[in-house]
Amino acid sequence: MGIDLEPVIGLEIHVQLATATKMFCGCALSFGEPPNTRTCPVCLGLPGALPVVNARAIHFGLMIGLALGCELAPRSIFHRKNYFYPDLPKGYQISQYDEPLCRGGSLAGVRIHRVHLEEDAAKLIHVGTSGRIHGSELSVVDFNRGGTPLVEIVTEPDLGSPGAAREWLELLRATLRALGVSDVNMEEGSLRADANVSLRPVGSTTLGTKTELKNMNSFRYLERGVAAEIERQRSIIEAGDEVVQETLHFDPSSGAITSLRSKEEAQDYRYFPEPDLVPIATTEAMLEAARAAMPELPAARAKRFEADLRLSAERAHQLAFRSELGDFFERALAAGAADPVTLANWVGVELVARTGEGDPAESAIEPSALAALVTMLAAQRVSVNAAREVLDVLVAQGGDPAAIVAERGLGAIEDTAGLEATVAKAIESDPAAAEQVRSGNPKAIGALVGAVMRETRGRADGAEVTRLIREALGLEAGED
Amino acid sequence: MSEILALSATAAAAAVAAGELDAGELFEAYRARAAADQLNAFVWVAERAPAAVAGPLGGVPLAVKDLFCTAGVPSQSGSRILEGYCPPYTATVVERLAAAGAPLLGKTNQDEFAMGSSTENSGFGPVRNPWDRGRVPGGSSGGSAAAVAARLAPWALGTDTGGSIRQPAALCGIVGLKPTYGAVSRYGMIAFASSLDQAGPLTRDVTDAALLYGSMVGARDPRDSTSLEFPGTIELPQRTDLAGVRIGVPVELSGEGIEPGVLRAFEAALELMRGLGASVEECALPHAPHALAAYYVLAPAEASSNLARFDGVRYGYRAAGAADLMEMYTRTRHDGFGPEVKRRIMLGTYALSSGYYDAYYGRAQRVRTKIAQDFAAAFGRFDFIATPTAPGVAFELGAKTADPLAMYLNDFCTVPMSLAGIPAISIPCGLAPPPGGGLELPVGLQLAGPAFSENALLEAAYALEQAIEFDGSAPNEA
After folding, report:
1. Which residues contact B273 (CB under 8 A, 6 or more apart)?
2. Rounded CA separation A399/A394 (Å)
3. B66 Cβ partners below 8 Å, 6+ apart?
């Protein structure tokens, strides 16, 4: 057993911006159109064509800089990053180098190194069995994606575990989504993350040799890939060998990590200032526009949910970090839901169980309908089980909860005498359970409650049923 | 026929406007000559006149350097790697001139990607100088210059990166204007060095240059981020004296390395300027001798990147039968580019390499700044700077092809203005025999002014032109 090692992780994130047009030309962004139908002389790199900067992309870049607490450069410039590849039509990528749009800043304690603008590459499709360029019969290029605006966000190596990396990236995604600057969908590639990973002895302040893990396309793969790389480095170090600086690929299906290129093979990109563009001068008007467009960010929203609405930290976090849930919750609250905590639980548990990863606003349910349902629940005019059934209908078909309750006969049984009769019948038909409850086994009451609920088709209030059973068995109401 | 050819472009436009000349007849007169071109000045000639467009340019047909993109018409920048390439769009400046009434007559030969000073680097064979077909027309806009000098075209469009309009204009005895950087849109110009390239007119006289240039500038082009709105409009020059005009003659660019015959013609022109009322004094551009060295770092650096797109993937030449991607790239570029282009790509790639960037690119940029400051200081005392345009008259084909440095020295007097981004015009100022003796050949005089001083520059050049009374007709080509 050697010295204790701790991981040091930094992230490099590429975000496709949700502008109307590409970074340097007027082509609309592409969402699965037929190949090479969203192209023009500029994004095809035709001879003589020149780039023109998309002002909206700069606006979004400044908003991101503000959200991350960056220093916004009064003047920044584009550079050319030169290398040959078929997905790069000009033979260089227009990016930013030593004068980026934003520097510094932090998000949830993780320091931001820089934020800069650049253009996305086109998409290569390799025809043949391998699906990769080596061994393919031919490769074709779809330039629809080429020139899509990208923001690159680089963190300092401030993350200490794969889980922390994942959690931070989820916060970043929520933040970017709240800003409305990107679809931030990892599976579709509008959010892409590379991780720089190194190990060092616990307590050391010098960084070990890092490797770069490329393009993990889900939060789960990021976490798993980084964990696998940490283990790989740990075994190298523990065997007395040295980690080699290289760029790596993580294959999520096999868990294997393979080398893409070593430091010696690293390209010389011959960066130089892009002579076809003039510097970006960030004017006060541009800054004001960015500030004016800033929404409440997830961290602040979670705090507000906790402090003002008394939600649990976990629920506040959930609703704030999935801004579509937070938005639905707040709209329902505004429509007059009785109790924020119950409403939040219904959004965070019941609604999410029905709408999954999707945006509930895109299902049939109106926020006002959920508000009405939760209000009925709080007034015990509907039972929890009945409310769940109503929610099924609302999500699938929409409508008014009161009408659905009436139509389906789901209203709570408020007739205590009738309910007492049902309770008596349940005790009579299961004397063994009744005896166990009497003799102090509180769990046995579940069978009796279940019988009553079956009988009333879930319309009875569970708490009321429990109270009546205990009363009928001569037990104190409050005891359990 | 020869009466039509004798008209300047401005005179022809006026005749068309007055109903004295039919635009179709005018087009055909030049079209027939361009089609029968024996100088290799044209690489493509229109088969017929496009539909007439009324405008200030009067339907006077325009020869356009190959590197301007013209929709559906070969635009090859003098390179085999773009042989037969027909772009889907037209360069802004060609569009503007067509809309102003200058229809496309043909595309003119040039040094490959505008890299050269003799047009011998063309992938489509050298251009011959109409004054002596054994000699070069200069370059890189040699096809445009030769076509205008030989009256194969009334006027032409060229581009100038380090002298590529002015030097061939000088060697062919015509007028060439390199505008202020940014005054003319570069959209659709196949780039050589983006921070230096500018389109400009090559014409028989200064008035024609003013008329054509007036329709090249105007509102800034939203498709070219580096383009600028021209302040005001270009007026046809009227001035016949130079009273009160202060001319500075930089010692660094008007002595050593200039052929004696060129110097004599240049000095005679300075005397004429004095006679017209100008004051002519020596001035200093202390960093100008370093301009060529800085230029041959910066221009190749930008070129190495600009020419990366010629990779065989999407258009132009692709080497057949390559086993893999790398082989396709290397063979395509090996076969498609000529030797001078490869030399500059290698120079530029080296200058931008990690570890060398500061020593080459960074230092060259600092020299560029110093040169611009030299000019700014000089323009505090002088209205214009005058130099010989080229250090010599037209040289024989093949004379400098084996010696790149000797070839590069052709741009010694023109490169400083390019680096400073200021306008400069070359006008013929007389004839001089070549160093080895022989028929006298044209000599050019260059006048340079501050940014956006084109109107004043054209006025001064016009006044001098009237006094010089240069006979622009090349022998044997009338």
Report:
1. B242, B245, B247, B280, B386, B464, B467
2. 6
3. B43, B44, B74, B75, B76, B77, B78, B107, B108, B109, B110, B143
Q: CA–CA separation, A302 vs B415, rounded Å? A: 62
Whether A45 and B77 lie within 8 Å, measured CB to CB: no
Nearest by CB to B329, from A84, A133, A271: name it: A84
Contact B69, B190 (CB under 8 A): yes
The tokens for B241 are 């004296």
Helix (H) / strand (E) element for B199: namely strand B198-203
pLDDT of chain B, 478 residues: tens digit per residue: 579 999 999 999 999 999 999 999 999 999 999 999 999 999 999 999 999 889 999 999 999 999 999 999 999 999 999 999 999 999 999 999 999 999 999 999 999 999 999 999 999 999 999 999 999 999 999 999 999 999 999 999 999 999 999 999 999 999 999 999 999 999 999 999 999 999 999 999 999 999 999 999 999 999 999 999 999 999 999 999 999 999 999 999 988 889 999 999 999 999 999 999 999 999 999 999 999 999 999 999 999 999 999 999 999 999 999 998 999 999 999 999 999 999 999 999 999 999 999 999 999 999 999 999 999 999 999 999 999 999 999 999 999 999 999 899 999 999 999 999 999 999 999 999 999 888 999 999 999 999 999 999 999 999 999 999 998 777 766 4
What is the value of pTM for the model shown?
0.88
DSSP annotation of A28: B
CATH number at residue B54: 3.90.1300.10
- A137-191 pLDDT, tens digit each: 788 999 999 999 999 999 999 999 999 999 999 999 999 999 999 999 998 899 9
Asked if omega into B140 is within 30° of 0 (cis), the reply is yes
CB-based burial, B6-44: b 16+ in 10 Å, e otherwise:
ebbbbbbbbbbbeeebebeebbbbbbebbeebebbbbbb
Distance from CA of A194 to the nearest CA of B (A): 24
> Which one of A48, A271, A275 has the shortest CB-CB distance to B195?
A275
> Could you give the CA distance from residue B84 to residue B44 in angstroms, rounded to a whole number?
10
Nearest CA to A272 out of B364, B327, B320 is that of B364
**Rounded CA gap, B169 and B148, in Å?**
9
User: What whole-number distance in Å separates Cα of residue B408 and Cα of residue B396?
Assistant: 16
CA distance readout (Å), B75 to B78, B103, B188: 8, 16, 10
The interface predicted TM-score (ipTM) is 0.96
- Could you tell me the domains of chain A? 5-290 (no CATH), 304-388 (no CATH), 416-472 (1.10.10.410)
How far, in Å, CA of B56 to CA of B60, rounded? 10
Tokens of A83: 């290398």
Residue B63 lies in a domain: yes
Helix or strand or coil: residue B180? Answer: coil
Cα dihedral angle (A227, A228, A231, A237), rounded to 10 degrees? Answer: -120
For residue B105, being part of any structural domain is answered with yes
Would residue B83 count as lying in a domain? yes
In this complex, the residue of A51, A53, A91 whose CB is nearest that of residue B309 is A91
In this structure, is residue B364 part of a structural domain?
no
Which residues constitute the domain of residue B218?
Answer: 2-239+451-468
A307 touches B: beta carbon within 8 Å = no
- The set of catalytic residues of B is 65, 140, 164
Total count of domains within chain B: 1
Nearest to B388 by CA among B276, B281, B201, B263: B263
Residue contact A270–B304, C-beta within 8 A: yes
CA A199, CA A78: separation in Å to the nearest integer?
34
Which amino acid makes up residue B371?
Answer: I
Which residues, other chains included, contact A442 with Cβ-Cβ below 8 Å and sequence gap of 6+? A480
Strands A92-95 and A79-82: antiparallel
